[in-house]
Amino acid sequence: MTSQIRIDDLDREILNTLMNDARTPYAEMAKRFNVSPATVHVRVEKMRAAEIITGTEVIINPKLLGYDVCCFIGINLNAARDYHSALRKLNELDEVVEAYYTTGAYNIFVKLMCKSIEELQYVLIDKLQAIDEVQSTETLISLQNPINRNVKP
Amino acid sequence: MTSQIRIDDLDREILNTLMNDARTPYAEMAKRFNVSPATVHVRVEKMRAAEIITGTEVIINPKLLGYDVCCFIGINLNAARDYHSALRKLNELDEVVEAYYTTGAYNIFVKLMCKSIEELQYVLIDKLQAIDEVQSTETLISLQNPINRNVKP
DNA sequence: CATGAAAATGCGAAGGG
DNA sequence: CCCTTCGCATTTTCATG
After folding, report:
1. Residue B125 distance to chain A (closest CA, Å)
2. Of B58, B30, B57, B56, nearest to B43 (Cα)?
3. What domains appear along chain A, each with residue ranges and CATH number?
4. Residues 6 or more apart in contact with residue B143 via CB below 8 angstroms
5. What secondary structure letter does DSSP report for B78?
6. CA dihedral sign of residues B23, B28, B34, B38
7. Percentages helix, strand, coil for chain B, rounded to the nearest 5?
8. HTH asnC-type domain: which residues (chains A, B) (predicted)?
9. Chain A CA closest to residue B152
10. DSSP A123
11. What pLDDT tens digit does each residue of chain B (153 aa) get?
């Protein structure tokens, strides 16, 4: 396992700030938290080295890119041992944006985004259910995503 | 609905780059895409104004912050009309990081992150199921998250 | 869409508490 | 050991053609 690291309140505040805006100037955080910009810099580098921070990304609005349909799909495999090969095939579908190995009713649980209900049908029937390892699927269509945030550092 | 906007290949390439690293220097993208840094700047501002880009954030490793447990919970409400009040209460639980209004078996579907199985039990019994509007829940524990990415611009 | 210059920000060495 | 000051390098930003 990756080495655990000591995170103090300053680290947490910096992290929290950057989780809301990855481009917050160090000088601004420095003023807010009463330290020097260089200290902020050092802390960020520390968390980066510890891989607590693994990167940055812009947040986009999928709807404005045409992605109107979001759904979750529970997948049952023919055999539990097919997990890895099924996953490899799922990974090749751009529409599959998240996949989870889960306990309970399904073997794999995925989040899928696509541009229309027609495309969803196509992906589901001709791509997902066409995977040999897939025995059956159950779809949950999301019409709204009222909460979307991250854990509290 | 928000105004749709024309996105060309350059926009798409810039977006794609920034979705992998929100701090990629404009000069670097400029060189890669054979335009000037100022052009990149203009395109980013355009997408920001159109709200295709809504912000930036650092990507963190939840495990290194102690969040070892991730699960999905399907929630059934006593009555469909309780949706808004239930959501307001769910929104107050820090452990609830995502919520979806869905068709099908559940009224609300949430993603939950917490620090241990003990905490999950506590949150589930004393916080989530303590909400008046909640009639029943079904939990799906995730042991692995092998795919986690965004849509393709 | 490019140029170029001014302003802001990031970065790292060296020193102090 | 962690923090700060300080100067240089890089990057962003904007007026102009």
Report:
1. 19
2. B30
3. 9-49 (1.10.10.10), 62-142 (3.30.70.920)
4. A100, A101, A102, A103
5. S
6. positive
7. 40, 30, 30
8. 7-68
9. A94
10. I
11. 445 578 899 999 999 999 999 999 999 999 999 999 999 999 999 999 999 999 999 999 999 999 999 999 999 999 999 999 999 999 999 999 999 999 889 999 999 999 999 999 999 999 999 999 999 999 999 999 999 999 999
Q: Measured between beta carbons, which residues in chain B are less than 8 angstroms from residue A115?
A: none
Distance in angstroms: CA B40, C1' D11: 13
Phi and psi (nearest 5°) for B122? -65, -50
| Consecutive H or E run containing B15 | helix B9-20
Min Cα distance B117 → chain A (Å) is: 14
User: What one-character DSSP code corresponds to residue A23?
Assistant: T
Whether B64 has its CB under 8 Å from any CB of chain A: the answer is: yes
What is the residue type of A29? M
What angle separates helix A26-33 from helix A37-49, to the nearest 10 degrees? 110
- Listed by number, the residues of chain B in 67-126 with a beta carbon closer than 8 Å to a beta carbon of chain A are 67, 70, 72, 87, 90-91, 94, 96-106, 109-110, 113
The one-letter amino acid at A54: T
